[in-house]
Amino acid sequence: MAIPFEFGYEKPATIADALHLLDKWGRNARILAGGTDLANELKQGFRVPELLVDIKGLDALEKIKVLDDALHIGALVTFDMVRNSQLVRDHAYILYEAAGLVASSGVRNRATVVGNICSAVACMDSAAPLLVHDAVVHTASLEGEREVPVQDWFVDNRKTLVGEKEMVSHVSIPLPKIKHAGAYQKMMRYTGEDLAAANVGVLLMEDGACRVAFGSVGPIPRRSPEIELFFEKNGVNARHIDQAKDMIGGIISPITDVRATKEYRMHMTKVMFVRAMHAAVERLKKQKI
Amino acid sequence: MKKISFTLNGELRQVDVAPNEILLEVLRYKIGVKSPKCGCDTGDCGACTVILNGKAVRSCLIFAIEINGQEIVTLEGLSKDGLTPLQKALLDRNAFQCGYCAPGMILSATCLMSGNPHPSEEEIKESIAGNLCRCTGYQPVIDAISEVTKKH
Amino acid sequence: MEELKFVGHPAVRIDGKEKVTGAAVYTDDLEFGPDLLYAEIVEGPHAHAMIRAIDASEAMKVPGVICVVTGKDFPYNFGLYMKDRFIFAQDRVRFFGEQIAAVVARTPQAAKKAARLVQVNYSPLPKVVSPLEALREGADLIHPDLKHYEHVPWFFPKPDTNIAHHRKVRKGNVEQGFAEADYILEDTYEVPRYAHCAIEYHAAVAKYDHSGRLTVWASSQSPHTQRNLFAIALAPLGIRHNDVRVIAPHVGGGFGSKAGVTMEIIAAAIATKVKGHPVKVLWNREREFYNTYQRLGVVAKLKIGVKSDGRITALHHSLFWDAGAYVEYGANVVNAVGLSAIGPYRVDNASIDSYCIYTNLPPGGPYRGFGYSEFLFGLESHMERMAKHLGIDPVEMRRRNAIRAGDITAYGAKMNPNGLHQAIDAVAKEIKWHETPSPSGPDMAIGKGFSLFWKAPAMPPNTSSSCFLKFNEDASINLLVSGMDLGQGFLTVMAQIAAEILSVPISKIRTENPDTDRNPYEWQTVASHVTWGCGNAVKRAALDAREQIFSLAARTHDVPKDLLYLEDEVVKCKRRPGFALPLKDFVIHGIQMEDGTFKGGPIMGRGVFMPEYASTKADPETSQGGHPNVHYTVGAAAAIIEIDKQTGRVQVKKVVEAVDCGKAINPSLVKGQITGGILQGISTVLYEEMKFDHRGKMLNPNFTDYKIPTALDIPDEVIPLIIEVPEPDGPYGARGMGEHTMLPVAPMIANAIEDALGIRMKSMPITAEKICLAMTGLKKQQEK
Ligand SMILES: Cc1cc2nc3c(=O)[nH]c(=O)nc-3n(C[C@@H](O)[C@@H](O)[C@H](O)COP(=O)(O)OP(=O)(O)OC[C@H]3O[C@@H](n4cnc5c(N)ncnc54)[C@H](O)[C@@H]3O)c2cc1C
Ligand code: FES
Ligand code: FES
Q: Measured by CB atoms within 10 angstroms of the end CB, which terminus of chain A is less buried, N or C?
């Protein structure tokens, strides 16, 4: 249990203070949000910093709100808060759905969505929902703020575009202007908590547009322009869903690891894709606005 | 070392901690509150569950220094004034065997019940799904939670 | 028979309140004050290598470090049945993660930091990671010294091979039996290794004080066996049995992992180097997986011949066990299965070869079921397949062969009275065996599976249990036993037995996990034998106390002893209604006579139990002649499962299990064992899977990737059924049932899968992935 490595700790009270600390310590500092990834990494001696910057004093980041036609999810918003947010249910149901499948309640009560995409472990649950919603990652540093489309955010397994002296303040999800419905599917070894061996997110728009994202079947989660284009050309129906499913083999290239073989991952991604599409179609039918 | 103060089971406590000390470690070895257990040290088993500001969390994933000014409840705190109806139901049903998972399990269920006094069976299962138990097969624990949440 | 007041009732656990309030104290909850030292282990990063040099100079420079100990400090062999094990690796590392050295420091941080600085120089050796590989001509020897190891007389190691033991059973005429068969099925089944996953880690704290007293506090199933093995191993230091004291607080689950001696001896040994200081050795979850015992893996080749009516004519079972780097305990698993691998059937012609094979994987050892789950997987799959081939209902096929009292076991002894046939009928009825449930959707398939089970305690023939029973002034009782409550409810059951005989309520009986100085001898809490063995000792101790009470009452009050009885803590007389002597009036202070003198004195019962009919003396070529197993506990189970045909996911809809425990002294605890054991069984067949890489390193020593079920992964319904055909020498007829409940589960699920999908899975685990790949043909010959 004991951590045989030493580091300092600061808990800034304002965003400005936090940014100054990050500016001063750079790569020798690490941001501490819920700590569910960080604590485990530090126990293992993985990327031990000189300073932990605990951002939990920055109350402004603990908000889920709608601003400028976008749903904002602050850096301190936990998966539990997502689960309990009517705003998220209304505007990004698939993120709500995915949040319910993250770990267990004891972890969800601490783990943040932003921490999830900052850790950027290939199996993360929040990526596919954010990808299909064209979410934007908002970063801040003393040099100013940046907006990075989540599609560009992931660089490699555990690697993102965040700068050394930067923090993520929030992610924003543009509110779709028309009726839409999404669905999220996660491949787990059983019903209880498990990291995704693969995951699929889809978002279907009233005008027939469809967005599809695959996770945990490569170093980074990705959208599938191939399938999206196919649906754009042909429209979404049961037969096309089946045809699109057959395209998946050429789109993803899963690997075999301790959680699953590549064959099963491929098969399950197809099954999940079909199930997610059908669920989304059904949900769209029921949507009022 | 930094002095932190926090409320533990209703009492204000102060303790010196280093930034690399984990909350579970400090509760158990510095303060001497032993009901939170270690069963994995990676957040997977729930044996270390404590209630932090009203929410069940894993104390093995929290740095002690983070809880300055906050409020923690452990099973010791829950048991201060005798058994809660849930504890009584668990006792009467011989729900636990080795009992190692019990503190975490009881705190998770208690949190569920405080926010959702009449949970469904699925919600009950979900609330303790992060608390691994190797002995009981869970059913007796679920039955005890069902019993008290139906009654009240 | 008189009505029982305590035995047979679902009493509340006597440790229940401690456990629901967080008051229960486990080893790592004990306080040892500021002088406590911490040891951190240095592990070997090779599955097989010679240790060339160990350099601890950098580690010693870390502030707070007291010393570094290595194998050289403790050149001692130890082991329960065979002395093939070492406190720290000597010149050779035999599995990945084996302990090479330990750093002792003032803080856990310092110990951990320093442990990373210990430099060890190895020269790697070729490694052997599968039992069949280890048997090959010219395979590297993992224990070149095998011929020198001491072992129990019923083991037969083959020097200069990797075979540590071969249990050979020959009964009847197997060739002729096969010749008479109308149908013969021969196949191979594989069951891999599994981990116990008690939620509490192993923990041990030891102190060797300046007077030469060694005290060890450990999370243990075996305090007395630990005392014995510590004393034997450390005898060169001048330590005797009476110098060693083992204290066992509550245990957070055992399942076999905390039986015998594993890491506890490290604490005991280190303590002798830091005299006067308590030293703590705390395992972590990773080490729980790869450096305690693991359940042995097995490749089982099974051949059964049957007549067209389903009756078995002959059976041949060859079992090749992956027993790991050290087999001091695991070899007895191999032995036990060798004796019992005919299963709960009447088999006149049988041959069994059970081979204990060294491999460069973690030591195999006891695990709930002691090998029976492993061979039953193949056997009960085989029975189902043969029934289907013959067109006989699988339940009927089992009925026709199921063993009865008086039938002859594989080793020639008589089968004990048992309720196997009742169990089969009860389960078939409750599961509605002849009805076919329908699946819940077009993508779903539904199936039913059945399985029988049996298991005997595997223990030395002179295994014994004992009990001291002391009355207190208020007629409350301290019941001193050395069985361990691992959660199964042992202490409650012992209190119920004493309560029954002495009419003292359970709430007035204190019985706690033992301290070897205070509590009398018990072999170990394993083999599901303590309700029976220790229960007998407790019963005898209580009868002894009662005899003292009646004698005293008779001689002081002039009543005939045989007319006395106990009721509600009062001695009464059948013929003198007014006669009433409350226990509290005399159990300590005696009875005052008219002349003012006192008679009697503290009442103290003593009870000992050893099965004096057991013997392992038998012909090594046939195993005929002895009486190695005291009795078998039997039962049956069935399940209905539903499978998602697209994903391979299995949902267990209903499980019924009947176990014949002779007498359920506490039915609530018996049912608890059934519910828990079934889930553990389901977990081994559907979810758990150990993965090793090419270096022999376990890849998933954590709950992130070694999945044990959560509350969301349980069957929809579990129906426990209790059968009670008394065991003639059991307390109130009781026999053990704790391990047994998981035994039928894996084959029962495999049978249900075949029923649902027509696919026979012959290797465990049967994960959703395996089912799916087999179904979709994505990976042909998944079974190969
Ligand atoms: C038992 C267990 C089960 C899990 N199961 C799942 C699961 O099913 N699905 C899943 O997706 N995840 C799972 N996770 C991982 C999940 O808990 C984390 O990824 C979590 O979301 C990270 O958030 P956090 O607030 O805890 O981040 P922290 O651990 O505090 O931080 C994570 C990383 O992000 C950085 N960081 C945090 N916030 C910021 C910021 N604002 N700006 C820049 N960098 C930042 C940190 O420096 C660190 O590198 C599991 C974890 C555990 C322990
Ligand atoms: S010890 Fe914290 S979750 Fe297991
Ligand atoms: S009762 Fe033993 S782990 Fe739950």
A: C
User: Would strands C509-510 and C477-481 be described as parallel, antiparallel, or unpaired?
Assistant: parallel
Q: Residue C531 gets which letter from DSSP?
A: H
Pair A216, A134 in one domain: no
Contact residues, chain C, for A123 at CB < 8 Å: none
Mean pLDDT calculated for residue range A119-132? 98
Percent of residues, chain C, with pLDDT higher than 90: 98
Q: Is A256 on the interface with C (CB under 8 A)?
A: no
Spatial distance between the Cα atoms of C317 and C320, rounded to a whole number of angstroms: 10
Cα–Cα distance for residue pair C160/A177, rounded to 1 Å: 78
Taking the complete model, does pTM exceed 0.90, yes or no? yes
Q: How close is the nearest chain B Cα to the Cα of A80, in Å?
A: 10
Domains located in chain C, CATH noted: 16-23+464-609 (3.30.365.10), 33-125+215-282 (3.90.1170.50), 297-459+617-783 (3.30.365.10)
Q: ipTM above 0.95?
A: yes
How far apart CA A72 and CA A61 sit, in angstroms, is: 10
Q: Which of B44, B59, B78 finishes a domain?
A: B78
> Mean pLDDT across the stretch C82-99?
98
For residue B53, what are the domain limits?
2-78
Pick the closest to residue A53 from A7, A9, A118, A113 (CA basis).
A9
Cα dist from B100 to A13, B35, B97, B112, whole Å: 39, 9, 8, 20
| Banded pLDDT at A1 (limits 50, 70, 90) | confident
- Give the distance (Å) from ligand 2 centre to CA of residue C283: 14
| C interface test, pick of A42, A190, A200, A268 with most C CB neighbours within 10 Å | A190
Cβ of residue B99 lying under 6 Å from some atom of ligand 3:
yes
User: Is A32 found in the same domain as A91?
Assistant: no
How far away, in angstroms, is A218 Cα from ligand 1 center?
Answer: 19
Q: What angle do CA C312, C313, C316 make, to 5 degrees?
A: 90
Interatomic CA distance for residues C374 and C168, integer angstroms:
18
List the beta strands (DSSP E) in chain B: 2-8, 11-17, 49-52, 55-58, 71-73
Those residues whose C-beta lies under 8 Å from the C-beta of residue C777, and which sit 6 or more positions away, are: none
Helices B121-128 and B102-115, interaxial angle, to 10°?
A: 130
**CB-based contact, B138 to chain C, within 8 Å:** yes
Contact B22 A5 (CB under 8 A): no
Asked if B57's CB is within 8 angstroms of A106's CB, the reply is yes
Separation between Cα atoms, residue C226 and residue C247, nearest integer Å? 10
φ and ψ at residue C632, rounded to 5 degrees: -115, 145
Q: Of all protein residues, whose CA lies closest to atom 18 belonging to ligand 1?
A: A116
* A167/A89 same-domain check: yes
Q: Name the residue among B98, B106, B118, B41 with its Cα closest to residue B78.
A: B106
C768/chain A closest Cα distance in angstroms: 7
Nearest to B17 by CA among B52, B50, B64: B64
Q: What is the pLDDT of residues C336-370, one digit of tens each?
A: 999 999 999 999 999 999 999 999 999 999 999 99
pLDDT value, residue C467: 98
A261 part of contact set with chain C, CB < 8 Å = yes
**What one-character-per-residue DSSP string does B33-75 give?**
--SS--S-SSSSS-TTEEEETTEEEEGGGSBGGGGTT-EEE-H
Average pLDDT (A95-111) is 98
Is the minimum distance from the CB of B39 to ligand 2 under 6 angstroms?
A: yes
User: Chain C contact for B76, CB < 8 A?
Assistant: yes
Atom of ligand 1 nearest to the CA of A37: 29
Task: Give the number of the ligand closest to the Cα of residue B38.
Answer: 2
Q: Most A CBs within 10 Å: which of C646, C652, C683, C697, as the mutation test of the A interface?
A: C646
C29: chain B residues, CB-CB within 8 Å: 28, 34
